[in-house]
Design brief:
globular, Uridine Diphospho-n-acetylenolpyruvylglucosamine Reductase, domain 3, alpha+beta, eight-stranded antiparallel β-sheet, Alpha-Beta Plaits, five-stranded antiparallel β-sheet, Uridine Diphospho-n-acetylenolpyruvylglucosamine Reductase, domain 2, about 450 residues, 19 strands
Length: about 450
């Protein structure tokens, strides 16, 4: 047991003994997140149940000069919630209440630790719709989604988490509790401070509560599976769909390796001989959905689709979507370490980028599968490797450098939805340029002058 005058002792005094973990075996699960090969055991873990308790933690940690890393479910894929040496992990999973569903204003207010799927289910039960759907939505927390500005399969039509945050409660490094935003559809008073914290990866403040915009539930959906013998044909089909002024809800892509792994894992009847697969979903008014899915089918045929399968009912549509969502799990069965990467390029450059990933994998003698959100240009090259093999991991690092450089050369970005975290911080300046990067650091210094909130991430 730590001395009463130690940081841990003071935290126990204010939050209770069970809320503070210091035993080595208790700390190990908080040493990593969903990112491969990044681990650091924290100094301690503390569980807060209110914004006031979060403020207490930050004030005590700040007085002791101890860095604080905020954590939800730990599903991040850029090392954003991996502790730095000597850090305190502040876990918000016990702040798990949905506080209000306002059907008159189409909003939902929740604490940061609520699971994303529960947000969706609560909205659905009220006849409403929360669109953002990160692949980890069954286990990730809404606070983590906001801190990372998470994307998802429905991003093409509906956007990302940022597009649904109307307000948030955030605790600053000095313990100040701020509410940013409101239920108003229009509000241009002052700087847009709310958006500053969305996607800030816990480096500016601790998000404790969110106010989310909901939409009316779409009246109808249709799902189509299209396969192609050539990658370029699939990419051209995506461009043709968008050019026809059709914006599907979902426009997903799997390469052949991913198709085969998913079919072996999920057994949903995917054609394993295909070079590329598109999973397309459209939603809205029944008449519009019927028209759009027919036009999409025609565009797929015109560009050489080898098979077309329209889901017969909602159950089959769910099975097909689940197959896409299981891609990471299916691939992870092949090798001891799975590194799920994340780059985005303009849609016109998709085929070129996928070819480059394949050429890079061959050049470095690596096993890579690629899938992702074709509709918005977001690709997930997934490296199947073994972190115990130092030589292979070095080749992975070199391959990733080439892939990030190529994405930028094609007018893209080093991350479309996973964030910067620890994994990509060395590449951020190259994307932003010196002046913009200096501005980023100036914002960090202004809001967290002692650099104690999630240090070493994104802006470092």
């Amino acid at each position: 047991m730590n001395a009463p005058d130690s940081l841990e002792g003071k935290l126990r005094e204010h939050l209770g003994v069970p809320a503070v973990l210091t035993a080595q075996e208790d700390l190990l699960p908080y040493a990593f997140d969903g990112t491969a090969a990044l681990r650091q055991v924290p100094r301690a873990v503390v569980f807060a149940r209110s914004a006031e308790q979060v403020a207490t933690v930050l004030r005590l940690a700040g007085a002791a000069g101890v860095p604080v890393v905020t954590r939800g479910s730990g599903t991040g894929l850029s090392g954003g919630s991996v502790p730095v040496p000597g850090a305190l992990v502040l876990c918000l999973v016990e702040m798990d209440r949905i506080l209000e569903i306002d059907t008159r204003n189409l909003t939902l207010r929740a604490e940061a630790g609520v699971i994303t799927q529960q947000i969706y289910d609560a909205a659905d039960a009220a006849g409403l719709f929360y669109p953002p759907d990160p692949g980890s939505m069954k286990v990730s927390t809404i606070g983590g989604n906001v801190a990372e500005n998470s994307g998802g399969l429905r991003g093409l039509k509906y956007g990302v988490t940022r597009d649904y945050v109307m307000g948030l409660e955030v605790v600053l490094a000095d313990g100040s509790i701020c509410w940013l935003g409101n239920k108003c559809v229009k509000d241009v008073a002052g700087y847009n401070l709310r958006d500053l914290f969305i996607g800030s990866e816990g480096t500016l403040g601790v998000i404790t509560q969110v106010l989310l915009k909901l939409l009316p539930k779409p009246a109808a959906r249709a799902t189509l599976l299209a396969t192609f013998a050539q990658m370029d044909a699939a990419a051209e089909t995506v461009s043709a769909i968008i050019a026809a002024k059709i914006i599907p809800c979902t426009l997903e892509f799997l390469d052949q390796k991913t198709i085969r792994c998913v079919e072996d894992f999920a057994h949903v009847g995917l054609p394993t001989e295909a070079a590329a697969l598109l999973l397309i979903e459209t939603d809205g008014h029944p008449a519009a959905v019927a028209d759009e899915i027919s036009r999409i089918e025609a565009l797929c045929r015109e560009r050489g689709a080898t098979t077309l399968k329209r889901a017969a009912d909602a159950a089959e549509a769910t099975r097909l979507a689940t197959a896409r969502r299981s891609a990471f799990s299916a691939l992870a069965r092949l090798r001891p370490t799975t590194i799920l990467e994340d780059v985005t390029v303009p849609r016109s450059e998709l085929a070129a980028m996928i070819r480059f990933v394949g050429e890079t994998a061959a050049r470095y003698r690596l096993e890579v599968a690629t899938f992702g959100h074709f509709g918005d240009g977001n690709l997930h090259p997934t490296f199947l490797t073994d972190e115990r093999d130092a030589g292979e991991m070095h080749r992975v690092e070199e391959a990733l450098k080439d892939i990030f450089a190529q994405a930028l050369a094609l007018g893209g970005t080093i991350t479309g939805e996973h964030g910067v975290g620890l994994a990509k911080r060395s590449f951020l300046r190259g994307q932003m340029g010196d002046a913009s990067y200096a501005l980023l650091k100036a914002v960090k210094r202004a809001i967290d002058p002692d650099g104690l909130l999630n240090p070493g991430k994104a802006t470092e």
